[in-house]
Amino acid sequence: MTNGIQTTVHFACPKCDAIYKTTQELRPERQSGTFSCFDCHAEVHAWSGSYNFTGWNAVEVKPMRRGWH
Q1: Are the CB atoms for 3 and 26 separated by under 8 Å?
Q2: Cα–Cα distance, 50 to 47 (Å, whole number)
Q3: Cα–Cα distance between 19 and 44 in angstroms, integer?
Q4: What residues does each domain of the chain span?
Q5: Across the strands, what pairs with 37?
Q6: pTM here?
Q7: N- or C-end of the chain: fewer Cβ atoms within 10 A?
Q8: What angle do CA 4, 11, 18 make, to 5 degrees?
Q9: Where are the alpha helices (DSSP H) in the chain?
Q10: H or E element in which residue 26 lies
Q11: What are 36-55's pLDDT values in tens digits?
């Protein structure tokens, strides 16, 4: 159960730079957990406290283009 406060947060894998999107939720009870990269299995984020993180999804990042093409 949440109190209605939800925020979308992005994290980058410290090993392979994969980007993940998750929902941060304020909870009345203490939460803890970890999330590891789908690709390289490195720990992306660990948490303990009033917030929980759910719905982890990989984000496709398109390469930046230079100039006006």
Answers
A1: yes
A2: 9
A3: 9
A4: 6-59
A5: none
A6: 0.80
A7: C
A8: 140
A9: none
A10: strand 19-36
A11: 999 999 999 999 999 999 99
